[in-house]
Amino acid sequence: MRAYRDLIRVPGVLNVTASQLFARLPQGMLSLAILMHVQGLTSSYALGGAVVACVSLGEAIAMPVTARLAGRVGMVPVLVASAAVNGLGLLALALAGSSAPLLIVLGLLIGASVPPLMPVVRALYPQMVRGDGVRALFALDTTAQELIWVVGPVVATFLASAVSTAIPLVVSAAVTVGGTVWFLLGAHRFRPTLAEHTAAFGRVLANRAVLLAIVASLALVASFMAMEVGIVAIYGRTGITAGAAIAIASVGSLIGGLAFGHRRLGLGGVVAALGLVVVGTMLFGFADGLVLQFAALFVSGCGFAPAMSALYLMVSREIEEHAATEAFGWLNSGALVGAAIGTATGGIAVDAYGATGAIVVATLLAVFATVSPLLARATGPLRGLAEESPLAASEGPLQLERCSGAD
């Protein structure tokens, strides 16, 4: 915990981290909010899952482009324009009727206009601290973002059941715009490193570390999203039980990230963390009763943040600084494609086989996420993952050095 205490004392770190997390809070609300809103309008989980999948696909396609633009023309115009379009799209979806084509188009627009905050802020981190502080900052970000998935689902289900399924969409629009403005005000001293030469778009995908991170995060997020659809099918879309169940998994991820996210996880540690997700998902499928089901979801979440933190740090170490925004944009796209796959296949499985079908899909996807680092290692060494004990702590106190951004 000393690593995190030292880190938040660095000027600018707490404000930048908090503001971008607040602006990204709708990411924890929208999947459930859109699923419940569309299902309430059309009585179809499949269409609800399809619209959520379109949001993810729209973001997956556009994010590398908007992230690359932020690294070439600057983050301010890109973030302002995308936040404005995204807010308008959310308001339009809240007021839309039950027309399936319209809902699909709005889903794509909302996804394509999500502000590229994640790739931008993770490109800024090496400017804010140095040395082992970068690892701790990635861990803090990955762990703290679990609050999005703790607070978001509960807020979405509460507002949807207490007021209207359209209200979470309106709130998401306000948070996106307001949070983006807050982030820009807090991060004005820092700028993503602008590319001094033009590299081919997508060239960064040739890096093995980027490819591994994309594949592993894709499968892991797909597993979580399929599980989310199954949870909604089990507990219903009214009340807060479904939101609380999803939040329990995120609490597990938060605790796992605080305990192990700042430590040097080797390849074995990443595989072990992902294995926890498999175990928890399987146990949820067999558990009988709310307490045991919640306990299984907690276990499934414990490995999420440590594994993702290690993957993000690996990418940061393996790529050149000027390519950071695009690389993290592709990483975000991989996760979003996973979200689309998980939500769509989970919705189809629920309609065809009930909630059990979605749990089976989630388990299979988690297994693939777990074996993907081993498959990558079989083709050659992974330099970005230190081969150390999964529980090995960082040696000594973190060396934190503030780096001034461009004014």
Describe the protein in words.
With 407 residues, the protein is mainly alpha-helical. It has a single domain (12-193, 203-378), classed as Up-down Bundle (Growth Hormone, Chain: A), CATH 1.20.1250.20. It has 17 helices and no strands. The protein has helices at 2-8, 13-23, 26-42, 45-72, 75-95, 100-112, 117-128, 132-144, 146-162, 167-186, 208-235, 241-260, 267-286, 290-302, 304-318, 324-353, 355-378. The chain is globular, with a radius of gyration of 20 Å. Mean pLDDT is 80; it is low at 387-407.
Record the SSE blueprint:
Blueprint: H1 2-8, H2 13-23, H3 26-42, H4 45-72, H5 75-95, H6 100-112, H7 117-128, H8 132-144, H9 146-162, H10 167-186, H11 208-235, H12 241-260, H13 267-286, H14 290-302, H15 304-318, H16 324-353, H17 355-378
Features:
single chain, 407 residues, Growth Hormone, Chain: A, 17 helices, 76% helix
In short:
This protein is mainly alpha-helical and 407 residues long.
Helix content: over 70%
Overall number of structural domains: 1
Distance between the termini: 32 Å
Which strand-content bin applies to the residues? under 5%
Q: What structural class do you assign from the helix and strand content?
A: mainly alpha
Biggest beta sheet attributes: none
